[in-house]
Amino acid sequence: MRTRTLLLLAVACGVAILAAGVVQLIRLAGHEAPPASVAVGTAVRLGDVVVTVESVAAVDDELVVRVEIGGVDDPDGIDEFRLVVPGASVAPTAPSAADRCAVVTERWQRCTIAFRVPPDAGSSRVLLYRRGDERARWDLAGA
Asked: Which of the ends of the chain has fewer CB neighbours closer than 10 A, N or C?
């Protein structure tokens, strides 16, 4: 190949790399930072719902989270909780105990939400709750 051809190919490669960098910057600029971690015991307002994670306990193969929640009638409100462990996002188990949360109501209620933790989940645990476009995050590591 001639020198001129090699120089043109090098310039074309440089322009392609520059364009890819600009596209990646535009993609990153549109992402929101994850929500800051909320301390256990702190009330969080997400739209029309207020949630307080009061305590966390590991019982057999479940992680049981005691919450105070209320503010609006929503039969599917509990379904928006997720427990994130390495390699998995775990949905709440079906309410079976008398104090398990079944629905979100306008009236404040103290109840528990249980998550079946996979056996190889490690010790990192993050509880997420989403309400519309708003999210709350509790770091439950070691629980």
From this structure: N
Provide, rounded to the nearest whole percent, the portion of the chain with pLDDT above 70: 92
pTM: 0.69
| Interacting residues of 100 by C-beta distance below 8 A, sequence separation 6+ | 111, 112, 113, 114
Give me the architecture of the 43-139 domain, per CATH: Sandwich (2.60)
Structure tokens at 82: 């997720």
Q: What distance in Å separates the CA atoms of residue 36 and residue 27, rounded to the nearest whole number? A: 22
- Give per-residue pLDDT as tens, 47-67: 889 999 998 888 878 888 899
Residue 19 is encoded by which pair of tokens? 């364009």
CA distance 12 to 16: 6
How do residues 111-129 score in pLDDT, each as one tens digit?
Answer: 888 888 887 767 788 889 8
Residue with tokens 């322009």: 15
